[in-house]
Amino acid sequence: MIFPVARWFVWDPCISPVGSVSAPDVSFVEPLLRRRLSSLARMSLRVAYDCAHDIPNARFVFASQHGELARTVTMLESLAEKEALSPAVFSMSVLNASAGLFSILQKNVAPSTAISAGCSSFGYGLLEAGLQLASNPQLPVLFIYADESVPAVYGQDDQHRNVTHAVGLLLQTSAEMHIHCTTSSNNDIPSDEAQSRAFVRCLEQGHADWHDAGKTWFWEKECR
Amino acid sequence: MDAMKLEIKRLIIEALDLEDTTPADISDDAPLFGDGGLGLDSIDALELGIALRKKYQLQLEASDAGNREHFRSVSNLARFVQSHVQAA
């Protein structure tokens, strides 16, 4: 599979010496909508806006491994305390919350898709975006991946994979940069980094590979 | 009554995550919902109902035709809550 990448943006949190985490600038979102944005939605919309603010008819695919899991935890805690669920939290707890917000923000009525596929959510989400472009090469496709560490209550420590960041790619047939993706089966030790970070390494350095669940993903950059 | 209005404004700001809004920004008689006022939506109405129930044990019925009037402005809400608190 070949992905023509016309634009790409990454948002990474900066952690200050006192441990506070920076938030992305989303001042382009009007205040009444902005107040409903989770930290995941903020970074998703930041890179989506950077990639496609001037392309109102782009189709878009949003992918995340854990999505708005933090909101689900908030609701489960309310239920455990026999409190009423917050309608605002409930309405924004679905996987396609950011995709919906993006369509409202951009007044973009093109089809959108939300994908979650375990720790390979980035790879399969990008595959979906690439296939959408192949099915209709005239219209660009925006691909957004964002994820956050799993809430502590799950007792699953994924800090070492450094998953919290967002990546946006604009796929367009006229792009000069092409990313070739191949996969193969093997039993290599699972990679220690998030799949999306391996892909960013390819964008920056020319190639990268990533292993999990008996599969190796390999990406290579070519500039025409 | 002014104390109650201020209390309601603080409740609205807190319950609805109105970043960058202060009680002074909300006028007593401006419409809370739709255009020409605070611009709140239907999710805010539900959220506000839950906050009022939690703080004042106010029981709101979805079918109550009076809700629209009670939720029109800060003044109306303050009057409604005041009458409920006094009756309780």
Write the layout of secondary structure elements.
The complex is a heterodimer of chains A (224) and B (88).
Chain A: E1 2-11, H1 31-34, H2 39-52, E2 59-63, H3 69-80, H4 87-91, H5 97-106, E3 112-115, H6 121-135, E4 141-147, E5 165-171, E6 177-185, H7 195-205, E7 207-212, E8 215-223
Chain B: H1 2-15, H2 42-56, H3 67-70, H4 74-87
Helix pairs in contact in B: 1-4
What does this structure look like?
The complex is a heterodimer of chains A (224) and B (88). Chain A has a single domain (7-174), classed as Peroxisomal Thiolase, Chain A, domain 1 (3-Layer(aba) Sandwich), CATH 3.40.47. Chain A is built from seven helices and eight strands. Chain A has helices at residues 31-34, 39-52, 69-80, 87-91, 97-106, 121-135, 195-205, and strands spanning 2-11, 59-63, 112-115, 141-147, 165-171, 177-185, 207-212, 215-223. In chain A, strand 7 (207-212) and strand 8 (215-223) form a beta hairpin. Chain B has 88 residues and is mainly α. Chain B has four helices and no strands. Classes of the chains: A alpha+beta (224), B mainly alpha (88). Chain A binds chain B through residues 31-32, 34-36, 83-84, 86-88, 91, and chain B through 16-20, 39, 41, 43-44, 46-47, 50, 53-54.
Helix content of chain A: 25-40%
What class do helices, strands and sheet pairing of chain B give?
mainly alpha
User: Largest chain interface and its two residue counts?
Assistant: A-B, 11 and 14 residues
- Biggest sheet character of chain B: none
Strand content of chain B: under 5%
